Amino acid sequence: MEKSPRVLGRPRHDEKAKPTQEVVLLTATNLFIKKGYKNVSMDDVARACNVTKATIYYYYPTKGDLYTSSLVGMMERIRFHIEQILNLPNPFKERLEQLVEVHLSATVDIDMKNFMREATMNLSESQLKKVHASETAMYETIERSMQLEMDRGTIRQGNAQFFAHTFMVLMSVGYFKDGEGISLFQTSREAAKEITDFFWRSIEN
């Protein structure tokens, strides 16, 4: 856990032998992470990929389509890593703590709230449905784990969906910074322990 993990939502930056569409999506995702929706144009993506703008439009007819695919891809990668951690054999509380630490360390430069806010402002209804479906899948991964541990008697009986959403909200507290940019916690490990301990007291059997 000492080694800082790769950003969970960021695709691997290895363009060797990748199809053009994958390179375009990888590049656009990294640009959106750094600059946000409004500050990235299709021209920017084309230049960064060293392809024509027509090539970008061939795969993604609109900037909204490209942004949608970027968001969906990020959330699918995050969900995959969440599932991997929750399927480990160690005790449930340890898995939750590890999930918080890895998630906070590896998504430090991804402002998901801003991503979702920009999506709401700039995407069509059908595009938003795709984004929300991926977001729901992330929560459902945690929800299934909560339900499984209830069935095992590890945690108290309750609403698994409520537990999952509460856990994710508490995890976001780990990103908090005051007006001077000072974090609430000194390290991701400290945040993970405090957040998990607080959450665990509400669900322990």
UniProtKB/TrEMBL annotation:
Stored PANTHER family: HTH-TYPE TRANSCRIPTIONAL REGULATOR RUTR (PTHR30055), HTH-TYPE TRANSCRIPTIONAL REPRESSOR KSTR2 (PTHR30055:SF175)
InterPro entries reported for this sequence: Homeodomain-like_sf, HTH-type_TetR-like_transc_reg, HTH_TetR
Keywords noted in UniProt: DNA-binding, Repressor, Transcription, Transcription regulation
SUPFAM superfamilies: Homeodomain-like
Protein name: TetR family transcriptional regulator
Pfam families xref list: TetR_N (PF00440)
Superkingdom to which the source organism belongs: Bacteria
Organism whose genome encodes this protein: Lysinibacillus contaminans
DNA-binding region, residues: 41-60
Domain HTH tetR-type: 18-78
